[in-house]
Amino acid sequence: MSLWPLKFIVLVFFSIILSYLLVMYTVRLQKLPGGVSLRYKIIVIRHGKKVSSQKFKEVLGYYNKDSNIIKVKMDSLYHWLGKGAILSTPVYKLLGNIIKL
Q1: pLDDT tens by residue, 41-54
Q2: Interval 67-92: pLDDT, tens
Q3: I want to staple 87 with a disulfide (CB 3.0 to 4.6 A). Which of 23, 38, 47, 92 is the partner?
Q4: pLDDT tens per residue across span 51-63
């Protein structure tokens, strides 16, 4: 009897556990809680695994679509980028000219 199915199951199990433990954070745009306005979005840091959740770690800034005002706490942004956070595509397009990655 071969042991490869058991080795495969153990490998998959440990890869799932390891991917959960290696926390990936994402800097992304999010609507204001409560659906206050569609014009304003906040820039937040959020756990990458919790896609449907509205919970976030920290508010890094905000973006106003009408007047194109972007306000970001740059020290916090660089702190989270140093921890391995990644920028979502919309945030990268917004902040691409401001920060040099």
Answers
A1: 888 887 765 555 56
A2: 888 888 988 888 888 887 888 888 88
A3: 92
A4: 555 677 888 888 8
Q: How far apart are CA 60 and CA 57, in angstroms?
A: 9
pTM assigned to the model: 0.65
Query: Roughly how many angstroms between the first and final C-alpha of the chain, as a whole number?
Result: 53
Residue 29 lies in a domain: yes
Rounded-to-integer distance, Cα 75 and Cα 43, Å: 14
Query: Alpha carbon 21 to chain centroid distance?
Result: 16
Q: What is the CATH number of the domain that holds 63?
A: 3.30.1320.10
45, 56 contact by CB (below 8 A) = yes
In a domain, 78, yes or no: yes
- How far is C-alpha 97 from the chain's CA centre? 19
Give, in order, the Cα–Cα distances in Å from 56 to each of 2, 14, 17, 41, 70: 46, 27, 22, 14, 19
Beta bridge partners of 64: 40, 69
